[in-house]
Amino acid sequence: MKHNRWQKAFLTALEKTGSVTEACAAAKISRVWAYECRKENPQFAEEWERALERGADALIDEARRRAFAGSDLLLMFLLKGLQPQRWRESRATIPPAELNKMIEVELQRIAKQKEAEDSAVVN
Predict the structure, then answer these.
(1) What is the DSSP letter of 69?
(2) 3-state secondary structure 16-41
(3) What pLDDT does residue 62 have?
(4) Per the count of CB atoms within 10 A, which of 30, 48, 93, 115 is most buried?
């Protein structure tokens, strides 16, 4: 895609910073104008998304580098992102089948209570 000068500056800054505000400042345009152009030009909108993706890739690369250099916190986040089922924090200590049974009992209790309240209003 052939870009206007401001579009090239915008996309370069967006990739580098991930910030629309900073990208607009670099391109010397308003945020309103940037979003209008994005809305009106699907090709520009695609380039916008690709710039954000490339920027995210760069962040991931840097996070990996730092994680391997000794940041346990970054390492934890990367593992959770790459294998969420394995590394997620489990808050549930009740087995799913038992939890489902408890929910069903509670729903039945609420239904009976509502039924009793409705019949009291009618009488």
Answers:
(1) T
(2) HHCCHHHHHHHHCCCHHHHHHHHHHC
(3) 87
(4) 48
